[in-house]
Structures are given as structure tokens and as C-alpha cells.
Amino acid sequence: MPRCRRAFTLIELLVVMAIIGILIALLLPAVQKVRAAAARIQCINNLKQIGVACHNYHDAQQSFPPGYLATVPYIDGATDTTPGWGWGAYLLPYIEQDNLYHGIDLNQPLQNSAAIQTVVKLYLCPADELPEGTFSITDTTQGTVATAAPSSYAATVGSDASDVADEYGNGVFYRNSKTRIADITDGTSNTTLVGDRAWTMTQGIWAGAPNLGVTRAGRRNPWPNATGTSPMLVLAHNNWVNITTDADGGLDDFSSNHPGGANILFADGSVHFIHDITGDGTEHWAFWALGTRAGGETTQGLDY
Hints:
This protein is an alpha+beta fold and about 300 residues long. The chain has 4 helices and 13 strands.
């Protein structure tokens, strides 16, 4: 006599599926939090390595690298950036990228070098949404100026009083800067160097500031038509963190895809998480103060 085999009823099957769905719904936020935490830790490690590279460069050259190098007379910071190589290029020998560095002629315009198309993993935040490979940098008429690899980090030119296109800045990195630790009289623990600047908000590169290049908004920027000058590709200033209401798209501000703030490297080599700054409160002015190298301002009011 054949044995009877009991199968699930439709109701039982639906109950099981509902339970599985609830469990997945409960687990998904936890998984996302773990991934976000891992990305934030890796980003911190990236910035710490950049900090070590900055100090090793300083030991060898007696100063931090320039924000970007320009050998032509200053006009406006947009049409006069040649050759344009930025801080990220000068740090290559100090982040185990010797071969890439030796393939660069720093006296030639950076857009003439194929090296700028090389993706450097250390300059990419794992929380960022990046293009696969390179992307086009265009001028004001949408003509291609260069094809370059992206970057998730920018160096600080100073407080909001310093524009990235200015000839000089009150921070550590600016046009032809050669800032020494001795110049940072505010103290290295009170002065910022480099921080998160998500490519999804500002389409930056590691190589530098190609002449006539335009910085454009990333795919997550609520101001998609916002544009900036070429130095903005590698420089930012201490003003806002993750601003979304500024009509210039916050292109020259720090940003990230980390929930609630951005990682910022300080001149003493430490990395701190600065929470979102989108208003003109005490934290805003303290963040300004952290951008200057010798301003003597108070940094009280900002928890970092």
C-alpha cells in the first residue's frame, strides 16, 4: 500500500514566506550598518595613509606638496593652471605608486599625460559611487580637456574666505603652496589637510587642475548644473559638510556618502569624523577655524 506524503498547504507556505520576509526585513538594516561602518573604517585608513605620505613628503622636501603647480602668471585661477599637477600626484612616491610617478613629467601639462587615467585605489572612498575607470573633464563649451581617473578626496585651501581659485589661501594647500609645519601656528591638531569630497557630489580627480577644465556636479548633487573652476577638481575649503541647499552645488565643500558627516584628515595625522554642517552656527565657524593654518581663531563648539 503506497505511503501518504503530507505536503505544505498553501496557507502554511504563505506563513513561512511571510516569516522569511520579516526576518530579511529585520536583518537588512543591520547588514547595511555593518557595510557602512566597514566603508567608514576603510576611508579612515585611506586618509591616515595620505597623512603619512604628506609627512614623509614634508620630511623629504621640507614642506607639504603644493595644492597644484602653476608656472604661468596668475590671472583668474581658471585659465592659468598649467602644468596643473596637484597634491595627489606629488604624493605618489609616498603611497607606493613609484612607477606611476616616474611616468609623469611634472613640467608638462597634466592633460598630456596618460598617467592621469590610472585609478589609484587609495584616493577612492569605498562609500563613494564612482565611475568605472575614467571620465571626461570638459571646458565651458563642453569640449573635452582631459580624460582622468576620479578621486573621493580634496585638500583644504583654507576657510571660506579662501576660494579654491585664488592665488593664495589661508590653509595648507593652494596654488604653488609650500606650507611647512612651522607655518601652521594654529597647531597641527587644529588644522585640516584633506577630507572626503564624494565624487557623487563633486566630480574630482587626483591628478590636479588641467588648464580650462571645469568641475561639474556628481550624480547625487541636487544642483546638477553647478560648475566650478579647474582647481576645484583637487581643492575644497572649510565651509560646509554635506550641504545640499547651496546654489553652487557645494562643489567646493567637503561631502561624503557616509551617514551624517565626513572623514577629515588633520595636519597631525589624525582623522576625525566631522558631522554634517549646513547652517551658520557655532560648529560652522569652528570648522572655518580648522581650515586656516595661522588664523588664531577658536575651534570651540565643534565636537571632533
